[in-house]
Amino acid sequence: MTAPPLTEPFTIGGVEAPNRVVLAPLAGIGNWFVRLQAKRFGAGLTVSEMISSFAIHHRNEKTMRDLLVIHPDERAYPGPIAFQLFGQDPEVMRSAAATAAEHGADIIDLNMGCPVPKVMKNGAGAALISDPAAAVEIARAAGEGSGLPVTVKLRSGQKSGEADGYQLALRLVDEAGVAAIAFHPRSAQVKHKGSPDYELAAKLVEQLPVPVILSGGLSNTEATLAAREQTGAAAVMLARGALGNPWLFESVLGLRSEPPAREEIVAELSWIIDRASEHLGEERAARYLRTFYPWYLEQLALDKPTLIAFQQSESIDQVRSMLAELEPLTSAA
Ligand SMILES: Cc1cc2nc3c(=O)[nH]c(=O)nc-3n(C[C@H](O)[C@H](O)[C@H](O)COP(=O)(O)O)c2cc1C
Question: Is residue 150 within a helix (H) or strand (E), and if so which, with residue range?
């Protein structure tokens, strides 16, 4: 059976996404301006970075101010926004999901794939793959608390060669009414390394009556389209491939065939700087953006000292003037 084109809409528990290209949840990265950027370049659904259900439940100030926020500009573009929550306590999840709904989420996504020890040691993230009964209870509670469709993002299993994540996906849909599964077919053990098991993803697509959103290894257009073809997944979820490269959304959607010009890359970085400053204020943005600079600047093939100067920059003003100095260089190219 051929899957519909990625440009066609699909629905998750009755919520429609205008196309099948999704921004992945990215911890420390997927705030409103990164989601807005993905929407500007065509993403049909965006997912927030993972947010602690405990932090929401206890109204942690930084969480409420920095993470549980949808910017009005995100709503200028079609397509739902999901907040991804993590945690191991069903009652806390019920309350956090209710609050996430009050703060504008269209979908609640649950993280059952995070392999980070800090998260797993509390029984959250990928630890839930080994506790399917708790996972089902948490998913039910999220749905009841929020009144929204619930999706779950998980991995193939705890260890390579195991399929406990696959089994959990079946149970979550069957027993908790989960509306879609975002499937990253790498084990928690290998974190982000190695080849995803697309065969297992294809099997899940066949088995599940709800959409499977494929994650993992979708680093460029060719890889994304090939993995989509192989699995028949309802949608694809772009992660590391989209860091500093929002053009990947356009390319996967068939809206663009050329790589971005140098001017476009500089202009996009400049947009990120403006929006990060709006979000965090210039002082915090200056520190926060240091990880973002190489994603953009490495595409310009700048010399090492220039790259280092950006990463060691002290202020947004300094970065803006360094960017202005690059402009003649980029327009000459
Ligand atoms: C920096 C970083 C942060 C991530 N944060 C999250 C997260 O908050 N929640 C989640 O479910 N997955 C998270 N992931 C996993 C990605 O969503 C995605 O499943 C993974 O990177 C595989 O896709 P890729 O090979 O195309 O990058 C993260 C990955 C990276 C690299």
Answer: strand 150-157
